[in-house]
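Worked problem 6 (solution included).
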Amino acid sequence: MHSHFFPAMDAAYRAQAEAEGLPWLRDAGDGTGLIMSGTKPFRPVEDILWDPARRVEALDEQGIDLQIICATPIMFGYGRPAEQALDSAQRFNDAALAFCAHAPDRMQALAQVPLQDIDMACAEVGRAVASGHLGVQIGNHMGLRNLDDEGLLTFLAHCADVGAAVLVHPWDMMARERMPKYMLPWLVAMPAETQLSILSLILSGAFERLPKSLRICFGHGGGSFAFLLGRVENAWKHRDIVRVDCPNPPSTYVDRFFVDSAVFDPRALSLLVDVMGEDRILLGSDHPFPLGEQDIGALVREHDGLSAAQKAKIFSGNARTFLNL
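Solution. The predicted structure is:
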C-alpha cells in the first residue's frame, strides 16, 4: 500500500499543462526527470516513477509481490475548476490502469477524483472502480473543509456503497509560512494534518453515521494520532466541549480505520501495533520517493517484538482485507 506514480502522458497534455500551470513530467531521457508545475520545477524524480518496466524491476529487487500505486498528490488538482479537475483525473486514472497493465499481477491502482465537486467525485470513483481500480486516494481536506464536512462524508459513504477502498493522504500542509526550510512541512505538518483528519471523523461523530463497510486508511502510520491518543482520550473524559458530538471514547473508534506502517522506527511501530491492533496496519512505504522506506518492509521484517503471524498480517493479510482481494 501507499506507493506513488506520475505518468509521462502524451505531448498534447504536456503542452497544455505547461501553458496552463498544470503538473506534468519532463523526461530528460537518461532515467531522470522533473515533475513540473506549469513552467516551474517541482521535484526531481527518476524513471521508476513513470516507467512500469523499471517499477517491476524494483519490485523484484525489493521482493514485493503486489504493489498498489496511486497519484503523486500534486496531481490532485483540487484548486482548479471542477470540470478541468475531472478531465485530468480521468486522464490520470486511465494512465494508472495502463501503467499497471504492464504487469497486472504485480501492480494495481487507486484512482483520484475532483473532490471539490462531490457529484463529480462520486461519479468518477464509480467509473474508476468499474474500470479496474481498487479504490481511491484523496487528500485529507478540501480547502477549509476537513473530512467531517457533509459533502466529504457523502463521498465517503458513496465509496462504501461502490466498494472502493479509500487512502487518505496529507497534502497542502498547514503553516508553511512558518516552515520555510528543512522539509519541516513534511516532518511536522504532514503528521498533524493526518491526525486532524482522523480526529475530524472521530470527534464529530462521523464514524457513528458512516457505514461500517467503509474501508479507509490513513498514510504515514496515521501521523501523530497514535502517540497523542492518550491526550485526546483525557480531553474527552474531562472536557464536555470535546465530547459534545462524540458519544464514545475516541479509543473505541480505532477499529473503524486502517493505517500504514511507514513510521521508520521500531519503537513507533510497537506503539502503533499496541494502539491500532495488529489487524489494522498495512505495509506502506511511500515508494519510490526518498522520504519513503528505502528497503520496503525492513521495519516490519526486522522487528524483534512482532511474531511471524503479526508480520504476515502487516505484510499482506490486512491488505487483502482492506482491498477486498
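Discussion: Residues 82-101 form the longest helix (20 residues).
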